[in-house]
Design goal:
The complex is a heterodimer. By secondary structure, chain A is mainly beta. Chain A has one helix at residues 6-31, and strands at residues 39-45, 68-77, 82-91, 110-118, 123-138, 141-149, 152-162, 167-177, 182-185, 187-188, 193-194, 197-202. In chain A, the strands form three sheets. In chain A, strands 1-2-5-6-7 form a five-stranded antiparallel beta sheet, with no helix packed on it. In chain A, strands 3, 4, 8, 9 and 12 form a five-stranded antiparallel beta sheet that branches. Chain B is mainly alpha-helical. Classes of the chains: A mainly beta, B mainly alpha.
Amino acid sequence: MRFISTQNRRTLIAVFLVLAIISEMGAYVALTPRPTEQFLHFYVLGKNRLAADYYPQNKTNLRLASNISWYLGVTNFMGNVQLVEIRLKLGNETTTPPNDTTDTPTSTPELVAFDRALMDNETWEFPFVWSITNATATAGTTHILTIQINNQTYQTSDWSALKGYNFRLILELWVWQRNTNTFEFGWGNSAERRTAWLQLWFNMTSIGAPPPST
Amino acid sequence: MKIFKWLTLTAITLIAIIMITPFYGRAQISLTLQPGFGQAITAVNNAEAAGAYPNEILPLVALLNRALDLNQEASTLPLNQTGEHDQLISSANQVLANVTNQANDLTTRSAQRAYLNKIITYVSGIIIAVLGTFGYVVASEFYERYRIKRTFQMKVKRK
């Protein structure tokens, strides 16, 4: 066996240590997941899956039984499985919208909710076809009585607007909280909280069936 | 007797009102399912944190959505179909219990696998360092031989 001098031995130990430190650092970097921004993406698209054509002929003044086709979607970028819920609420001009600063939802009760468990990086998109099926106008106020959503008819309670202007559909994204075992509006902790909600306005100034399509 | 008649009438009227009351369609997670959902989601998140792969998580998420569908189906039933409602909720609870059990098993397996992977990766670092040092020794040896060879090949010229 070849004799290794003390100086050479020291050099070898130094080389080994330097290489070991570098390779162990590489191993640590490879094993440690990179921190990413955690968020949920919530959107509504028009009938052509674009952020356009939300209403027939782009006219926001609706009539009875005119079908409106949207697509609701949520994408999970939270880094793990999330249980999400989209809550649909009905509003008018005076309804207080959700507050992004205080992270509070609108106080009106939800009409319907859609739930789904989502994997990381998964997008959940589904058609949301709705129409007003029954409404009345009394003393200058339009009352929407029933709304059909995805072939299911829902009766509304006290959904009205002066002269039929400025009705709103408010969509809120609620996320399951593990510590409370309930859905909460938005996500994150008390130090950094995020919310996502959408609202779409429409009018119903004249109650009447849509003209027959030619 | 008259009071009994009035009470019966009131009860019938109340039941009729409840039956006629329009469906508000709130697909809320049933209160009886909330603990089950909580446990299932926590178990699935733990499995992910332990290092489970997405293809292992996917069936669990599908089962969670199955439980949500059962819950929604139960919530849309008329109030008089309590038997079917309870059956659906019971099925959803079974699905959630199944998810929790599978996720717990997956957590154990994933944790063991992740631990083994960690050890292999760090040991690989040491092996790479040893191989690198050996390479340094071999390279040094070759360089030394080269230098010796060059030295003995030198020619001394008188100026």
